[in-house]
Amino acid sequence: MKLVATLVTALSLLTSGVASAQAGGAAAADAPRTATVQGSQAIKITRSGSQQSSEGPAEHFTGSARIDPLFSGTLPSHASAGRVTFEAGARTAWHSHPLGQTLIITAGRGWVQQWGGQVEEIRQGDVVWIPPGQRNWHGATASTSMTHIAIQESLNGETVEWMEKVSDEQYGKVTSATKAPSTAQKLFGDFDPKLAELTDNVLFADVWERRELSKRDRSLITVAALIALNRPEQLRAHLQRARENGVTKDEVVEVITHLAFYTGWPNAINAIQTAREVFQ
To answer: 119 near 178, Cβ under 8 Å?
Structure first.
């Protein structure tokens, strides 16, 4: 009886070991497949600045435009996006998108026009939908830069069809049709027209248009100088211009905080109050 009991126990242990080994082998066989599936569904982060910027190609853009890729379609998605920054006067050529395009304006002011339609002004925070196949162009105004995020889908591998450029004559008509009296003309043009003319044609049409510095950098410099000089009224106007030129609220706050240690606390406090009014 003892021999029988021993044999039964040994057989039971052997059977249990085989079953465990088989289970372990199945789990091991499934492990690579599971890891592969998990890997294909993993969250992907593309770090800011990790993708190379490029200039808008001359055959499709007029003026200075910088393109920063954001993402390209990952199957089954066919969507892609990029951030485009237009300096003043820069614009796309006429073009269309087979499945349409969405523009999210993130800084500055610009224009968009569909073929045969009126020019529409677009500002920071606006969202523009361009229908499929609709011939259009978009870009900065003649005096301010503009940045937008462009999102589109591909059809048979194509996202855009490029056409002829928007001529200087066509763009000039837009400028003339939308041109309003300048700030200088409004403030003192009737009392001192020469000073208003110099302000418009020398300061803003010459100095501010020099390509050695971007409009955004010129705005930061001007804002910093006005904070240091404690000129709240002029600061208000230039903060509005800085906002149009792509300077953010966080950047202005950081400039004021930094200058508090160099130009004095009262200047910084006055600047904060002015900036709050502009950015609210």
So the answer is: yes
DSSP 8-state symbol, 93? P
Mean pLDDT for 59-73 is 93
Q: Give dist(CA 118, CA 258) in Å, integer.
A: 44
What are the Cα distances from residue 169, in Å, to 36, 105, 176, 205? 57, 25, 10, 19
In contact, 60 and 136? CB cutoff 8 Å? no
> What is the C-alpha to C-alpha distance for residues 119 and 133, in angstroms, rounded to an integer?
18
CA dist., res. 177 & res. 171, Å (int) = 10
Range 168-174, long-range pairs (CB < 8 A, 24+ positions): 168/62, 171/62, 171/89, 171/91, 171/142, 174/111, 174/113, 174/119, 174/142
What's the gap between Cα 12 and its chain centre?
A: 69
Residue 19 has pLDDT above 50, yes or no: no
Q: Does 41 or 249 have the greater pLDDT score?
A: 249
In angstroms, the CA 205 to CA 110 distance is 18
Q: Is 179 helix (H, G, I), strand (E, B) or coil?
A: coil
Contact call for residues 135 and 94 (beta carbons, < 8 A) = yes
Average pLDDT over the chain reads 84
Which residues face 127 on adjacent strands? Answer: 104
Confirm if 270 and 251 have CB atoms less than 8 A apart.
no
- Cα 198 to Cα 20, 182, 185, 211, 217: the distances in Å are 90, 12, 11, 20, 22
DSSP state of 202: I
Calculate the alpha carbon distances from 94 to 59, 80, 198, 220, 252 in Å: 11, 20, 35, 33, 36
